[in-house]
Amino acid sequence: MLYPENCLERLGFSEVRQLIHKHCLSPMGQQMVDKMQVMTKYDQINKFLRQTNEFKSILENQEPLQISTFFDIKSLVDKIKVEGTYLVEDELHQMYASLLTVFSVLRFFEERKEVYPNLEALLEHLPVEKNILKRIEMVLDPKGKIKPNASTTLQQIIGDIAKAEQDVRKRMDSIYKTAVGNNWVADGSLTIRDGRMCIPILAENKRKLKGFIHDESASGQTVYMEPEEVFTLNNKLRDLEFDKRREIIKILIALTTDLRPYTPLLLSYHGFLTKLDFVRAKALFSIDIGADMPILVKEARTKLINASHPLLYLSFKEDKKTVVPLNIHITEELRIVLVSGPNAGGKSVCMKTVGLLQIMVQSGLLIPVHESSEVGIFENIFADIGDDQSIESDLSTYSAHLTKMRHFVAHATPKTLVLIDEFGTGTDPQFGGPMAEAVLEVLNNKKVRGVITTHYSNLKLFAGNTPGLENASMLFDNDRMKPMYILEIGKPGSSYAFEIAQNIGLQKEVLELARAKTGTNQNRIDSLLVDLEREKKQIYDTKLHLSNQQNKVKNLVAENEKLQLFLDENRKVLIKEAKLEAQAIIKNANKLVENTIAEIKDKQADKIVTKELRQNLQKVLVQHQVKEEKKPEVAVALNTPIQVGDWVQLNNSETTGQVLEINRDNLVVALGELRSVLKKNRVYKISNKQAKKAIQNNSYTGSISEAIGNFTAELDLRGMRGENALHEVEKYLDKSIMLGFPFIKIIHGKGDGILRKLIREYLRKYSQVNRVEDEHADRGGDGITYVYFN
């Protein structure tokens, strides 16, 4: 139950309704929007929310669901029901276009069974009756006009009309040429008057040509004459036109009669189109306001996370501003939130946001909140917003408030949501405050839920000492003297009356007099609230700063670990290359020694030849030794001090980098894409030329590092066809195996399971694949496949 009657209007739901109205394609959809009501049954609300959410998903994923043509099939069916009546060409074309939309939508959901189960429920097992389309296609062309061959008789009549028109034209052209040759004709060509083709004749020559005058010009100098010879032909042509019209009506009556047995099915199609238009409009509005589907619960409670007022969101969106999100909880233990704080600080918007979002959810609309938000179901929603003065009812502002309070107290239950703006105002604060406190106590005893805004200190004190009630305040920036529009639960807020007055420039003497007239206790309470808020903001800023510092430390640690991994990998590669080269050197040396011994034997130990062979062997070994000694000399250390911007090389390594910062004995060095802190004694300075050469030598390693850095172990294939998906999997597996990743994650969605089956069969072909597993049920289940490599 909603109270008062203008509750929806006061909370802004009427404006929401109008915005959804604009997205409807048909009057039927708009009628359903007008009939939207606040529901209280969980299953009904859940069904409407899920339908809207599924249609929103279709729109956001740009699914090929073509919906553009909606007509009122019901009015056409009502006409068909009457015997003897018939649908004209335009009406038949409207029905045809609407049925094409229906069948297109039915085919869309048939191809995606169980993907959108709640929208599929709208279909109600509707059959695709193609006979209706075939019957209409036999009569109408694609533009909605009667086909010339709709019947044999019509085709014959149309042929006779064409021949008669040709005869009329030929005879008229002949007479017109004769009249022109005799200079009887006025300026102009053949024209139509009263549906007859006429020749414009000068009035002075009208008796020179036999015929019928159908009209004359404004000046009377020209008359429009139908020649007598053409008159009979035109009468014949007109008779044929009448015959054509009678035959068309006969065809339309026959077609309408054929469609009459399908009236129940056509009404079902009409109902489906109406619901589809309604759900589509709600989904489009949800996208406009950035809405999501919250978690719907059966209990009377609310947990809004990052909530926005939809109308405020749209207004700010036009001005390219952002809405400060609202976070508020209403539970069994924390039933009523008493919001206080500065004027124009957002108290009323906070309360209206809670009320409007609750009404939207119970009307089947998605709301602009984080998807983890929880929204319950309330049987009653009572709102006291505005003064509701009434001359007719002889109600003052305060009387109107009391009338509402009487109703609240009489009908409130634990499943009632109460929304009261500026509680207790409208009369002397000395009496209004206690009256409001008494009403609040009774409502709390009835365990109602609600959001109430106030400036009264006695209500703040009462809320602080009463179980079930909780103070909350809208934060205020003391430095800039501006409201922050952030709700903070747990403490009351100051009204900042003096600070705001001072900020807008109210005279000093007025402020001093006001402070003197304000009670000492009240001043002390207000000052304490202001100081508490200031200290809390300082603590918050400090925590934020510490959090940022911790994030920086984490990033530095991650970079160091990445660098260490990079160096370890390089060390392994270098050692492996050195071992291979050493093996090659030993192999070549052994071969050379064996060849030398063989030659000495062949020469039968001739001393001179033996000496020469030994010298050659020694020479080769010395040359190789010199080559080995020269090879590591990649860079020559410079003796000048290291400065920012210099290039350095790690000791006993070919890794080079550029100095970014110098902190005493520590250097911040850029090693490719990595940043690392190194001791000065671990590096030595090299020239720019040496650095360039070293970088070129390490370009391959850098490219691998870059490839690893850019690679993500997750592949999303949702919405792709089988062949394209397998092609992407092949490329992705090759890259994963080449870069040495231990496992990858493939997202293919659930659907009918076809794509999942194709991918898993394809993975069996790879010997490098060790096993495949489903994701955890809470995080996607068999819609995601993990692939582990050997």
Quick rundown:
The protein is an alpha/beta fold.
The CATH topology of the largest domain corresponds to Rossmann fold
Largest sheet: 7 strands, mixed
Poorly predicted parts: 390-394, 626-634, 700-704
Multimerization status: single chain
How would the global form be characterised? extended
Return Rg in Å: 44 Å
> Strand percentage, roughly?
15-25%
Percent of residues in helices? 40-55%
Q: What is the distance, rounded to the nearest whole angstrom, between the alpha carbons of the first and last residues? A: 64 Å
What number of domains? Answer: 5
Structural class category: alpha/beta
Neighbour order of strands in the largest sheet: 1-11-12-13-9-14-15
CATH hierarchy, class of the largest domain: Alpha Beta
Mean pLDDT: 82
What is the count of helical runs? 24
- The beta-strand count equals 24
The CATH architecture category of the largest domain equals 3-Layer(aba) Sandwich
Walk me through what this model shows:
Endonuclease that is involved in the suppression of homologous recombination and thus may have a key role in the control of bacterial genetic diversity. Belongs to the DNA mismatch repair MutS family. MutS2 subfamily. Residues 715-790 form the Smr domain. With 790 residues, the chain is α/β, with parallel strands linked by helices. The chain has five domains: 39-49 and 58-182 and 230-275, Orthogonal Bundle (MutS, DNA mismatch repair protein, Chain A, domain 3), CATH 1.10.1420; 295-518, P-loop containing nucleotide triphosphate hydrolases (Rossmann fold), CATH 3.40.50.300; 544-617; 647-707, no CATH class; 712-789, Ribosomal Protein S8, Chain: A, domain 1. The chain is built from 24 helices and 24 strands. The strands form five sheets. It has a seven-stranded mixed sheet, sandwiched between helices. The chain has a five-stranded antiparallel sheet with strand order 19-18-17-16-20. A four-stranded antiparallel sheet has the order 2-3-5-4. The relative contact order is 0.06.
